[in-house]
Design goal:
The structure is a single chain. This protein is mainly alpha-helical. 80% of the residues lie in helices and 0% in strands. The chain contains 4 helices and no strands.
C-alpha cells in the first residue's frame, strides 16, 4: 500500500478517517456521558494534526497523480463525512497509479 503516491495517500486517508471516527464515537461520548473532557482534547489534537497531513497529502497527490479537480474536491469533502474516507479508499483502489 505504501509503495506509490496513491497508496500513501490512501494510508493517510484511512488514518484521518479513523481519527475522525475515534473523535466522534469514542472521545465525544467520553466527554459528554462520562465527564472526561481530556479525551476530546487528546483525540481532537491528534485528529487535527492528522487532518493537516491529509490536506498536504491531497495537494501532493493531486500534483503527482494529476488528479482532476473534482477528485481533489471529493477527497477534501470526504474528510468531513464520517466513513467518507473509507468510501473514497474503496474508489481509489480501482485507479491506475504512478
Amino acid at each position: 500500500m505504501l509503495k506509490n503516491t496513491l497508496g500513501r495517500f490512501r494510508f493517510i486517508g484511512i488514518l484521518e478517517g479513523s481519527s475522525l471516527l475515534m473523535l466522534l464515537f469514542i472521545a465525544m461520548p467520553l466527554k459528554y456521558w462520562f465527564g472526561m473532557p481530556n479525551a476530546v482534547t487528546i483525540v481532537g489534537t491528534l485528529h487535527g494534526y492528522i487532518f493537516l497531513v491529509y490536506i498536504v497529502a491531497i495537494v501532493y497527490t493531486m500534483i503527482a497523480v494529476k488528479w482532476p479537480f473534482r477528485f481533489t474536491i471529493g477527497a477534501l469533502l470526504s474528510a468531513f463525512i464520517p466513513f467518507g474516507n473509507f468510501i473514497l479508499d474503496r474508489r481509489l483502489k480501482n485507479l491506475k497509479t504512478n
